[in-house]
Specification:
The complex is a heterodimer of chains A (92) and B (470).
Chain A lengths: L3 H10 L9 H19 L18 E2 L9 H5 L5 E2 L2 E4 L4
Antiparallel strand pairs in A: 2-3
Helix pairs in contact in A: 1-2
Chain B lengths: L2 E12 L36 E2 H13 L3 E2 L2 E2 L2 E4 L9 E4 L6 E7 L5 E11 L3 E5 L2 E5 L6 E7 L6 H17 L12 E11 L9 E6 L2 H20 L8 E5 L4 E4 L12 E2 L6 E2 L2 H10 L4 H12 L3 H8 L2 H10 L6 H12 L6 H6 L6 H12 L5 H14 L17 H14 L1 H8 L6 H11 L6 H12 L1
Parallel strand pairs in B: 13-14
Antiparallel strand pairs in B: 1-11, 1-12, 3-7, 4-17, 5-6, 5-16, 7-8, 8-11, 9-10, 12-13, 14-15
The chains are: A mainly alpha (92), B alpha+beta (470).
């Protein structure tokens, strides 16, 4: 059973602000999603490997240095940058 | 009421691999910001992490060196939290299947501090806070770490200090990390609580972070122990929270106003496959380990009749013990080597760092040659001592300072002559000695040694002097 508190907690962890009046509607939606997931949980999976990396193991790298990218390339997609650093601005 | 301290440690150690845990960027310390980075370690979508084999081997070494069981099946998990030091908003770590479990570190008292687990994970990036803005450097992001989690078995500050020292020593011995607390390659968080002496339930604990030396760990624990005791004595309650230790004030303070309930929502990292280890692989790593300091010290005491304290000194750093092992090879009495090292050689190494580096001009083979001369009865201890000084200064061998003439003892007649001459030349010392000053004899002994060029036997000379003075 999903409670209002669960919704508040998920919102907090997701860094979302949810207005009080939307909590009930969200709770109902979330309950629906969880119920749907429950039908999956009830499926008979006896003997079925469902891990998407099942059967694979020990994929290792050797400890050999490969040249890194330039700082320009590293920062190319950064939303904000300064002095060769990624920049996280103070929230207004 | 009398209270008892209860503490456990979480210790992060940066592994000395050349590359990061999931990509091939260098782990070198320093470097210009964001120059040791690639799409994997800055967490770009669509990249695939691949585990560094060396990280697994090093973690197994750490586990074996601390008496852990090594898991035959292990896996990587995502630990979710949102903070700019993690570009992916999760840290790849290990949750329910760590590589090593159920080990212990043995203290000098014989007490075992149990280890719950050792797991591997990636380090976070470095944040620089300036005027409310945060500058992020991901050079350190993805550097491999092991986290060593102890059980709450520590009951005093001395135990805490020794525990951290022992971990540091053993990890350096096996060569998996330099464990420099000041540079952050070894970081300790301590969980601490108090309880009335005799109680067997645990009190509410706090966690102290941000301590960059063993001295600070001791100070922070002392402060926190007092704080919690005072709180309970005055009828208050300890709140479970994370504290930061401030080096400048020597106090701990809360890191967060409100303790947000940790919910890391661990789940398996679907990008990383299962780690399977065979008995043969683990055995091979075991065989590659050097002799560990505790075993070494025990062996020195048992086989060479070296005192426990000296054995601790000789095994504190790997280079010292290796030097000792080499220098005493094939000698009848390794204890002589130990005495020269702890006496004359250590006195030239002023700091702990000097001792650890153990950079001296004399090779272990040269020291062995010198001690062999004593063992063969060719030279006396005194001459050996002055010769060793010259050797340490110059890097030359013993035979560069000892002539054929120096070897062999001094016969009875010559000894008597030397003593008579010494007595004649030092009437004051003789008078002092007669007046009851036992030490005055040293001046006479020194004089004889000089005349005999160090060949005379000190005990014989002392006896002869006493006999002559009467």
């Amino acid at each position: 059973m999903i409670t209002k508190e669960d919704i508040e907690n998920i919102a907090l962890l997701s860094k979302l602000f949810v207005p009080e009046e939307e909590l009930d509607a969200l709770r109902e939606d979330m309950q629906g999603i969880i119920d749907f997931a429950d039908t999956i949980n009830n499926a008979d999976i006896e003997g079925v490997e469902f891990d998407n990396i099942a059967g694979l193991s020990n994929q290792f790298r050797e400890d050999v240095v490969v040249e890194s990218l330039s700082v320009e390339e590293i920062l190319k997609n950064a939303p904000d940058q300064a002095q060769d650093h990624f920049l996280v601005r103070k929230r207004a | 009421m009398k209270y008892e301290l209860v503490a456990g440690f979480e210790t992060h150690i940066e592994l000395a691999t050349k590359t990061k845990i999931f990509c091939s960027c260098t782990t070198e310390f320093g470097g210009d910001p964001n120059t040791h980075c690639c799409p994997v370690c800055i967490g770009l979508p669509g990249t695939l992490p691949k585990l560094n084999r060396k990280v697994v081997d090093y973690a197994i070494m750490a586990g074996l060196a601390t008496n852990c069981e090594i898991a035959r099946v292990s896996k990587m998990d995502r630990k979710n939290y949102c903070y700019p030091d993690l570009p992916k908003a999760y840290q790849i770590s290990q949750f329910d299947k760590p590589l090593c479990e159920h080990g212990y570190v043995e203290l000098s008292t014989g007490k075992k501090i149990r280890l719950a687990r050792i797991h591997i994970e990636e380090d976070a990036g470095k944040l620089i806070h300036k005027k409310g803005d945060t500058y992020v450097d991901y050079n350190r992001g993805g550097v491999p770490l092991i986290e060593i989690v102890s059980e709450p078995d520590i009951r005093s500050i001395d135990e805490a200090k020794e525990y951290v020292e022992k971990l540091q020593q053993v990890m350096r011995y096996i060569g998996i990390s330099d464990c420099k607390m000041q540079e952050g390659s070894m970081r300790c968080d301590v969980n601490i609580s108090v309880r009335p002496v005799g109680s067997d339930t645990f009190g509410t604990r706090t966690e102290i972070k941000n301590m960059n030396s063993i001295t600070n760990i001791a100070k922070a624990m002392e402060y926190e122990f007092e704080r919690q005791c005072d709180l309970l004595e005055s009828g208050g309650k300890v709140i479970q929270e994370t504290l930061r230790y401030d080096d400048a004030t020597g106090e701990t303070s809360s890191m967060r106003g409100k303790e947000d309930a940790h919910d890391y929502r661990y789940f398996r990292d679907p990008d990383l496959v299962t780690i399977l280890l065979t008995d043969e692989e683990i055995e091979a790593v075991k065989n590659s380990l050097p002799e560990l300091p505790t075993e070494k010290a025990k062996r020195y005491v048992e086989e060479f009749a070296i005192t426990d304290k000296d054995a601790q000194n000789l095994t504190k750093y790997r280079r010292i013990s290796e030097y000792f092992d080499k220098a005493s090879e094939g000698l009848k009495n390794p204890k002589t080597v130990a005495n020269f090292m702890i006496g004359q050689i250590f006195s030239r190494l002023a700091t702990e760092a000097d001792k650890e580096i153990f950079d001296i001009k004399t090779t272990p083979e040269q020291l062995r040659e010198l001690v062999k001369l004593i063992e063969d009865g060719k030279i006396k201890n005194n001459l050996a001592k002055t010769t060793l000084d010259k050797m340490l200064e110059s890097g030359k061998g013993a035979m560069d300072f000892i002539s054929e003439d120096d070897m062999g003892g001094v016969d009875e007649g010559a000894l008597t002559e030397f003593c008579k001459a010494a007595i004649e030349a030092n009437p004051n010392a003789v008078a002092d000695y007669k007046g009851g000053k036992e030490k005055a004899l040293m001046a006479l002994l020194g004089n004889v040694m000089k005349q005999s060029r160090g060949k005379a036997d000190a005990a014989q000379v002392t006896a002869k002097l006493k006999e002559l003075i009467g």
